[in-house]
Amino acid sequence: MQFLTRRAYAGSLLCVLVALGGCGDDAKRPVRDGGTLTVLSGSDVDFLDPGHTVFAQGMQVAAATQRPLFGYRPGDPSTIVPDMAAASPVVSDGGRTITVRLRRGVRFSPPVSREVRSQDVAYALERFFSVNVSGPYMGYFSDLVGAPSAPTRGVKPIRGITTPDDHTIVFRLRAATSASFIGALTMPASAAVPEDYARPFDAKNPSTYNTHVVATGPYMVRNDAAGRTVGYQAGRLIELVRNPNWRASTDRRPAHLNAIRIRTNASDATVTSRQVLTGSHVVYAVPPPGSVLKELSKGRWSGQAVRAPSGDFRFVPINTTIKPFDRLDVRKAILAVFDRDATRQARGGAASGPIATHFLAPGIPGHDEAGGARGSGADYLANEDGDLALAKRYMQRAGYASGSYTGDEEFLVVGGNTVTERNVAEVVKAQYEKLGFKIRLRIVPDDALFTNWCSVPAKKVLSCSGIAWLRDFSDPEPMLKPVFAGSAIAKPSGNTNFSQLDDPAINTAMAKARLLAGQARATAWGQIDTMIVGQAAAIPLQWDDFTLIQAKDVNGVASTTFGSFDLSYTALK
To answer: Are 116 and 216 in contact (CB under 8 A)?
Structure first.
């Protein structure tokens, strides 16, 4: 799971970049090795530590600096390929045992400068469960035999992880959940962490490995002789330089660039977009505002748009614990009245992606089984522009004779502070007000939207206005379980079930679907998607296409995994 800030194509000049190619004649110019790329972003990474990062910007840096066991090529987000692993995993014992052989010759960056061993991968996952690291998606690895049910004090061995030799690691699971477990091994948490170097940092709470992190990928955060990441200036700059111990013969990444400067204080999206479109050797880390997207869709800035389907769903959660939204008919009324196209227009119109009718996006197993583009056929999602008359009938069924809310309570909606997110938040506020709800809109910095508000149940947020749930890997379970399972509700913070939906039938169906594979798995999760729509716990807005922009002399390659440029594939022309 990640937040974006993470797909219907508009305009012949926009295309999907899946390799070193582009749009327009200029994009056909050959790429070159070397040079420095500047990446502009309006927000910082959450963490540099691969065991702690979960937001898109952190994942972008991790993709350039770390090597998990498995991963995806930029243009194929559905096929898992070996990364630090030497080959595909071997699954045995009916899906309960997974054996992975490590690639030889992968080395840590200075100051560690030695070959990666299987024990380093074991330590990376064990530290993930420690309270000092407290990995953000521990649930993906909770089926390991001996995995703790809560974060441990200090890093503890996990019985289900064994290392028969320096290049073999074996995972034993309590249940036959190898499908999702292998998918989770594409996440940064499976990137090796050298215990002999990191343990003193991990002994502190919180771990300080974040400011001493070493790399296994082609790039590293610039550091000093002691390993301190002096190239990281919080809220300002991240300097990535070549990892001198990286060998191209061990990696599929071309790693064309010599250095990458990520400026994290480019807060004005419109100004930043102009700087990129008229600049040199520069890209924008996130999609530009809707006004720029509309220019691109009309043919301006030929060859400077990089576009790809994200596989994510964008939605507005409805907090089901706040009265009267604990009533199903009230929630159905909100879905019925909601003008989903209005939020899409605020994001740039049809160029930003198709209107969603449920949650699993095209390309994710279970999408077709949940009804495809048509969806479940629920009447309260039939009109993408909203249906006020139908909404009022649902309010009447909920006990409001006038068809509108008659109470005096004010409800909190929170939105991000970029131009686009402010506009979206205003649209969301207006939809509630159509049915008489009094809304207090609070605009907060994007990097605080989730950490300080949406994921803190005590804040009593009715809706966060601009959430996109990005795929961690191409499977329906991580798309639905963290967002709608009762077990995902977390307090006092770190909650990802923003609706706080805790439906016994959905919880049971999810527990059964986790054990399935292949078509049976897709069918089961598609049915769960339909069940979630039936509970009207969130408004499905759209399935994002993400569009990124670059200077004319950049050949950008988009990652559909984290919704930004893949810096290990991007090059200068």
So the answer is: yes
